[in-house]
Amino acid sequence: MINSAIIADQEEEITLIKPSKGWGSLNLRELWIYRELVYFLTWRDLKVRYKQTALGAGWAVLQPVLSMVVFTIFFGQLLNVPSEGVPYPIFSYAALLPWGVFAKALNDTGRSLVSNRSMLTKIYFPRMVIPLASVFSSLADFLIAFVVMLGLMYYYQIAPTSNIWTLPLFLLLAVITALGVGLWLSAMNVLYRDIGYMIPYITQLWFYLTPIVYPASKVPEQWQFFYALNPMVGVVEGFRWALLGTADAPSPMIAVSAFISLALFVTGMFYFRRMERTFADMV
Amino acid sequence: MSNLAIRVNNLGKQYRIGLTPMRYRTLRESLAETISPNARANRAARKQELGTIWALRDISFEVEKGQVLGIIGRNGAGKSTLLKILSRITEPTTGSAEIRGRVGSLLEVGTGFHPELSGRENIYLNGAILGMKRDEIDRKFDEIVAFSEVEKFIDTPVKRFSSGMYLRLAFAVAAHLEPQILVVDEVLAVGDAEFQRKCLGKMDDVAKEGRTVLFVSHNMSAILRLTDETIVLDQGQIELRAPTPQAVDHYMASGFSQSGERIWSIDEISSDSAPFRPLALRVSDNSERRLDSVRSTNPISIEVEYALDAPIKGLRVGIYLQTTRGEYVFTSFDTDNTKQFESFSQRPEGHYVSKCILPPDFLNEGQYILGINASSYRVKRYFQDENALAFTVDGAGAPGKQWPERRLGPVRPRLHWDIDVR
After folding, report:
1. Is residue B190 within 8 Å of B110, Cβ to Cβ?
2. Residues of chain B numbered 174-233 and touching chain A (CB < 8 Å)
């Protein structure tokens, strides 16, 4: 937003304020200085999320579990969707884990700037702190839901594969994708409130473009390339591969997924930085 | 530069006027504008027609280290915009500013407070938002709590706080910020009078510690007390920079309506005041003319006209009278007397005029500022404007007028003197 040259000059900061032009730098250093604020905002989101609910953090478990039950009844039982040799509940739950993080992060980041408008107009801090905190807070639900996954695996007597160490990498891919898209959407939402209304539909469409209720192998061969451009395909398949040993090891296509995700993330950051200077006036 | 804390060069901020009525464009409009050449032409035309306004224009000034500088000006003069630019919330359109030292800005108290969180949690959250480090907050925690006087409720969600407690807590956090340069907007205009005094005291300490302070306020007594030098902003430009007493006199004497009447239009009233709606404030000496000048030898009537859109319990509507130096002469409410207090314990909705009469031979000659306040004690302050109307008291015929000297003090009573020769 502002070209601030922080020079260590006898412990005195010098800040230069002037109009900025064109594409600015990311200024990640300043973001690092404000890391404690990210921590506190994440903590606030977590503290507040389930306040005054009877079930509290139980919702973090209930949401994916209820989805799993519904999918198992409709897709697993009634429509007989194949589940690659594992019971359908665990097949869908393994996908719902990373999807939950992704969908929640996307939703929260997309709206984060507008819902924190009072902060934007009253105090200075690197604006990227806000979407970042939204992403981190969505990770907490993942940890809780993951415990249920372990329970399900015990129940169905499925041992995790030796590839389980790759899980954090796939999770990271999901988070970076969500953050990349979230940065774009949140900055656009400041200007166009339409985005806020579009987010649920974007999420829903994305849900069907990701192999959650069906296996990726069901997608016709000639579409597989385009299908894999969706980073969440790689993430979900990766989760099933690492946890359940179904699906094939990630093909080179995962590199394409990762590239797309990084591209979204980096362009998202630049776009965000560029739009940032108008936030306080427009939000 | 070494001894300067802030240097501002030709700073300007331009806003598009269309911004307020249609704050955000919808995507459809933008798409239509991009696609259809017709609409694009429309947009260009609209841009021209609406034009832009300069909220600030060519502002240049310097602030030395340790100086406490006041900034005053009417609503819309650009005070807040200036502070927002200096606190890096928004960017200037032109010019630049150079700031030496860590800046802490208080444009609002309680930024980021979450109603569901407890007082304790909000102290940490708000502290972090204001730029304090965690160990810094740990260190000052007890002090903050003591200052806020809400010890007993520190683990209660702040949504259960009274508005006074909420503000006290919020200010307490802000007051413990220790930047080298402090930028403060009208945050002192909150809370009850006692707490305001405490806040002012704290600000006094801050100023004495040799920190640089930029202080915006409508409260002239606060400006006079805290600052040595003051900038008067008018329509985005610096009208005057002078020693504070001189700047305050200049500001107070200029621009007030000369009619003895202040009328509020809808857009001047914040929605926070609902259901109270001020309509007018009038001063007159009952000589059938409503001018800004009243005779000190006549009874002076003061009328507050207002509407209630819903019934209010325990409402009191009152006036403050101040000198142009910001000293209070008195405060009085329409339910001060037991009789009114009892018969108006609840006021139904409707249109009201509360009127009082100042006795003749009461005020000294000079300029006075009338303010109004509408509140329910310890419940809510619906409306307050401390500088609603200025008027002049003409001392013709007042006691002691045979000597053309200026008499000290805001009152000039006609006292009964006896001179005994012993």
Report:
1. no
2. 180
Question: Which residues does chain B have within 8 Å of residue A16's beta carbon, measured at their own beta carbons?
Answer: 96-99
B12–chain A Cβ distance below 8 A for any pair: no
Closest CA relative to residue B210, chosen from B65, B63, B99: B65
Nearest to A40 among B28, B88, B128 (CB): B128
The answer, yes or no, to whether the previous bond of B275 is cis (omega within 30 of 0) is yes
Query: Measured between CB atoms, which of A12, A18, A124 is closest to B101?
Result: A12
Contact B376/B164 with Cβ under 8 angstroms? no
Helix and strand element counts for chain A (H, E): 11, 1
Interchain proximity B96–A17, CB inside 8 Å = yes
CA distance A192 to B6: 36
Domain ranges of chain A: 28-282
| Residues 223-252 in B contacting A (C-alpha not used; CB under 8 Å) | none
Quote the CA–CA distance of B273 and B288 in Å, as a whole number: 32
CA dist B6 to B101, B102, B251, Å? 9, 11, 24
Instruction: Quick: pLDDT tens for B186-202.
Output: 766 555 667 777 777 77
Q: What six digits make up the tokens of A157?
A: 């007597």
**Coil, strand or helix: which one is B98?**
strand
Per-residue pLDDT of chain B (422 residues; tens, 9 = 90+): 468 899 999 999 988 765 444 445 566 666 665 666 565 555 555 554 456 788 899 999 999 988 999 999 877 788 889 999 999 999 999 999 999 988 888 888 788 888 889 999 999 999 998 888 889 999 999 999 998 888 899 999 998 988 778 888 888 888 888 888 888 887 665 556 677 777 777 777 877 787 888 989 877 777 887 888 999 998 899 999 999 988 887 887 665 555 678 888 777 777 788 899 999 998 888 766 556 678 888 899 999 999 999 999 999 999 999 887 778 899 999 999 999 999 998 999 999 999 999 999 999 988 888 999 999 988 888 998 888 888 888 888 889 888 888 888 899 999 999 999 98
- Residues of A in Cβ contact (< 8 Å) with B26: 192-194
Contact A127, A26 (CB under 8 A): no
Q: Would the ipTM clear 0.90, i.e. be above it?
A: no
Which residue is associated with the tokens 């990498």? A169
Please indicate whether, in this complex, the C-beta atoms of A37 and B128 are within 8 angstroms of each other: yes
Angle between helices B119-129 and A35-49 (to 10 degrees): 150
Give A178→chain B minimum CA distance, Å. 22
Tokens 């804390």: give the residue. B5
Q: In which residue are the tokens 């000589």 written?
A: B287
Which chain B residue has the Cα nearest residue A11? B101
**Residues in contact with A17: Cβ distance below 8 Å, sequence separation at least 6, in sequence order:** A2, A4, B85, B86, B88, B91, B92, B96, B97, B98, B99
Question: What are the residue ranges of helices labelled H in B36-162?
Answer: 37-50, 79-86, 119-129, 134-148
DSSP assignment string, A140-167: HHHHHHHHHHHHHHHHTT-PPPGGGGGH
The B68-73 sheet, strands edge to edge: B103-106, B181-184, B212-216, B68-73, B229-234, B237-243
Q: What's the pLDDT tens digit per position in B39-83?
A: 555 555 555 445 678 889 999 999 998 899 999 987 778 888 999
Domains plus CATH for chain B?
Answer: 4-12+56-253 (3.40.50.300), 261-394 (2.70.50.60)
